[in-house]
């Protein structure tokens, strides 16, 4: 057992060393702690790492009370009592004030509110890095969930180990050092370290799609679709996506004629001659440039795909508006023009 604990800890320590190689460990970090096994284990592991390698670092353990269950306030206090005793850790409870209970799209609304509260608190306290306890099984569930929703390549790449998120004009870094670890290894660690945690009853509530997918994993694993296999597949898709993004960035610059905050103009022939997947990515990048943070969620991928198919195959492209952007093809000067909708 001790050997496994050292192996788990060594992998965790190595992941943090890679993440901050050449930069130095931050003076402040935040960790989202719900009270479940994964987030509690992450907080303990971070405290151990900081005590050994960055003793001046402050760890802000953040728990969100969504005010959706009566037990939530008690659970947040339980987290505070447990992690507040750890070296370099202070605990803070953030409350979602939403008035009447939300009864539609509850998971989505709660997630948006949670991250908004976390980032707002981090911004006020000058913290840039948020650590989250997602692990290999979570990645597998995300892959199946997005596959069921018909996601494209980007969606099936699932959650990255490190990513940048913009919120209220500031960039935050999400860190998932457990992403390659199976759930079983995390539970071994909590047992060895004597970490107490809460078993959230919503993790067994079949009204949630993720719970139903989690229950299906046992059947899928018999057919070879284990969490590890799905994790590896998502990693390979991520690698392919990064290659496509690299090519798309180059072709964006090659076909670009002019741009400002209101209008982006491409050379039509250069754009239309590209493979459809690259055209789609160039157009999505241009839409993001024009919309910025004003439209964090773009149109459905199918609608962008249809627009780009018309662009590369139709004899005459019909002017249209999509996702707050106006698209038009000027045949006289051979330009494809995107402008922000007035």
CATH superfamily of the largest domain: HUPs
CATH class type of the largest domain: Alpha Beta
Overall number of strands: 11
User: Any idea of the CATH topology of the largest domain?
Assistant: Rossmann fold
Helix residue percentage: 40-55%
Strand order of the largest sheet: 3-2-1-4-6-5
Specify Rg, calculated over alpha carbons: 23 Å
Largest sheet: 6 strands, mixed
What is the SS-derived class? alpha/beta
Integer count of domains: 2
Which sequence of SSEs, written as H and E, runs from N to C?
Answer: HEHEHEHEHHEEHHHEEHHHEEE
Query: Averaged pLDDT, please?
Result: 90
Rounded to the nearest angstrom, the distance between the terminal CA atoms is 64 Å
Shape: elongated
Total of DSSP H or I helical runs spanning 4+ residues? 12
pLDDT below 50 for ≥5 consecutive residues: which ranges?
Answer: 1-5
Plain-language structure description:
There is one protein chain. With 342 residues, the protein is of the alpha/beta class. It has two domains: 232 residues, HUPs (Rossmann fold, 3-Layer(aba) Sandwich), CATH 3.40.50.620; 81 residues, no CATH class. Helix content is 50%, strand content 17%. The chain contains twelve helices and eleven strands. The strands form two sheets. The chain has a six-stranded mixed beta sheet with strand order 3-2-1-4-6-5, with helices on both faces. Strands 7-8-11-10-9 form a five-stranded antiparallel beta sheet. The radius of gyration is 23 Å and the shape is elongated. The termini are far apart. The N terminus is likely disordered.
């Amino acid at each position: 057992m001790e050997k496994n604990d050292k192996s788990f800890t060594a992998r965790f320590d190595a992941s943090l060393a890679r993440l901050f190689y050449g930069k130095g460990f931050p003076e402040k970090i935040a960790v989202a702690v719900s009270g479940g096994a994964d987030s509690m284990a992450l907080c303990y592991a971070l405290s151990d790492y900081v005590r050994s390698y960055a003793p001046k670092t402050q760890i802000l353990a953040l728990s969100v009370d969504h005010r959706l269950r009566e037990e939530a306030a008690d659970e947040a206090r339980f987290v505070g009592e447990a992690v507040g005793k750890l070296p370099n850790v202070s605990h803070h409870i953030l409350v979602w004030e939403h008035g009447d209970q939300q009864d539609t799209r509850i998971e989505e609304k709660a997630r948006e509110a949670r991250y908004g509260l976390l980032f707002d608190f981090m911004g006020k306290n000058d913290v840039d890095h948020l650590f989250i306890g997602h692990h290999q099984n979570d990645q597998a569930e995300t892959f199946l969930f997005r596959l069921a929703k018909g996601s494209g390549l980007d969606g099936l790449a699932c959650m990255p180990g490190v990513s940048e998120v913009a919120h209220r004009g500031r960039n935050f870094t999400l860190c998932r050092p457990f992403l390659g670890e199976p759930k079983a290894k995390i539970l071994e660690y909590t047992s060895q370290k004597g970490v107490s945690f809460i078993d959230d009853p919503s993790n067994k509530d079949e009204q949630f799609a993720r719970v139903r997918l989690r229950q299906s994993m046992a059947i899928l694993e018999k057919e070879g679709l284990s969490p590890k296999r799905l994790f590896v597949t998502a990693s390979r898709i991520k690698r392919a996506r990064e290659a496509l993004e690299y090519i798309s960035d180059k072709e964006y610059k090659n076909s670009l004629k002019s741009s400002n905050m209101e209008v982006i103009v491409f050379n039509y022939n250069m754009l239309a001659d590209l493979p459809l997947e690259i055209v789609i990515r160039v157009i999505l990048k241009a839409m993001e440039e024009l919309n910025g943070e004003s439209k964090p969620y773009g149109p459905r991928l199918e609608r962008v795909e249809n627009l780009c198919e018309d662009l590369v195959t139709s004899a005459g492209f019909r002017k249209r508006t999509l996702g707050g952007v106006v698209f038009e093809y000027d045949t006289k000067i051979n330009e494809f023009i995107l402008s922000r909708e007035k």
